[in-house]
Structure formats: structure tokens, C-alpha cells
Amino acid sequence: MTPLSADLVQQKQHLREKLRFRRKHFAAHLDPMAQLAAFRALPAPLTELLAEHAVIGAYAAWGDEPDILPMFADVAAAGALALPHHAARIDTMSFRRWRTGEPLAKGPWSTQQPANDAPIAIPNLIFCPLVGFDRQGGRIGQGGGHYDRYFAAHPSALRIGVGWAVQEIDAVPRESTDMALDAILTEQELILCGDRL
Description:
Blueprint: H1 6-29, H2 32-37, H3 44-52, E1 56-57, H4 73-77, E2 81-85, E3 94-97, E4 105-106, E5 112-113, E6 120-121, E7 125-129, E8 132-133, E9 139-140, H5 146-153, E10 158-162, E11 183-185, E12 190-192
Parallel strand pairs: 1-2, 1-7, 7-10, 10-11
Antiparallel strand pairs: 2-3, 3-6, 4-5, 8-9, 11-12
């Protein structure tokens, strides 16, 4: 990993633009039945992990991100699911509990999130959205650094990125603040990175 530099920031922004276009184009042309089937069931290794963790962090899909909430219907019904929550347009985020059927509110970054009065939770297994990824656990997010800061503050939480297979690149440019993923889940496969899973 390298320290933050203007060149690296520019390189990552260029990749974000390219990968967002790729993701949007792919999602727009995905067969409707395939779109319904994608991310509806967790692969066996991850199903076993759910039973070992008290609180699972997920996200409400935004734009062309894969919709993963159907995979966690049982977790949400049991009150063990938490989604990202932003109190304001600040650099930190928290997770708040959410159950299926509860309304989601529009957050300050235009993403859907639990209500402000939902209980705060600290997930120990987190599924996060990706703009891009590599097979070494490198992740390109939206660019705000919210997940990286959360991961740094909670290093023991397992980190699983979720994205479409077309978002894979050979190598993600890494900054010193970037936190590696433990695995990546796409509609095609589960990619293990490192040795924590």
C-alpha cells in the first residue's frame, strides 16, 4: 500500500468512472430472470458463517448495486441485521438494526437507511457494496472512505465485498488507509482473499 497521493486519487477516480459505466451497462442488459435469481441465496460457506455471528451488516442497494437484502430475510426477521446509517454529510457512519418491512429513510448521501431512532448495532460480519475489486481483497468504493474508516475502527469484523463479476480488475491501486476484504461475492462465485475465512 502507498500513502495518499494526488496521482493515486486521480487513478482511482478514473477507475470508478470506468467501472460504474461497466456496472450500469451490465445491469441494464441483464436478463430479468437472471437478475431475480442473482444474490437470492448465500453460498454454503457463508451460510455457515451467519450462524457464528450475532449481528450481520448488509446494505440497501443503490443504483446498479446488487440487491442482497433478500439473502438476509431470515436474519432480518430475527432482528440480527444492521444497515449503514449516516447521521449527516460527515466522514463517519454507523450501523443500525433493520427488519424486513420496516421503512427505510433517505439518508444525507441519497442512500436508503434505517430510521434515525433505530437501535445502533456493531456487526461482526459485514457485506459491503463495491465499485471495483481484485482477487487480493482490494476494493474500490464510492470514494468517501466511510467503509474503510468503519473497518479500521472495527478490525475484527469480517469484510465481504459484493459486486457483479464485470467489476473485477487485475489490481486495485491501494492507499495506506484502504482495508482489504476477506472475500468477494459475485453472481458467479465466492472469492476468498487472505486467511480469515
